[in-house]
Write a structure and sequence with these properties.
The chain has 150 residues and is mostly helical. Helix content is 42%, strand content 5%. The longest helix has 16 residues. The model has no long low-confidence stretch (mean pLDDT 80).
Amino acid sequence: MLDDVRQLKGKHIKALCCLWLKQNIAASTIQNRLSVLRVFCGWSSVGKAGMVLGSTSGEYVLVGRASRTSISTRDRSWTGKGIDPLAKINEVRAINPRIACQLDLQRVFGLRPLEARRLSPFLCDKGTYLDVSLGTKGKRPRVEAIATAE
């Protein structure tokens, strides 16, 4: 038990990581927690800047035990799960035409769900391209070409 945060040492961080691994906490969660600890230790009142090593959890846990990858190991798309997108969208259209329209926008233009919900066709349709500005990541406007009549 620590009486003061200034008593925090690298061995405590290592012990926390071991505990998190025993609890089967995801590698991304461990990485986020270490990031929070890194910021906390950098505060002037704590005075332990640089104590939490590295930018990944690999400094504290055995490689492979808590590794994080951005490469998908399985197909999560509708077609990858054996679902026909057009049939599913038509099924949704019978229940709610607006939601089906949003799904069509996502399918045809590759829009994200929030972009499809916030799209105003009368403002965004520029003839040869779609000007997407509402709901984009980082509020950065982008352009999607209108390549087909669909």
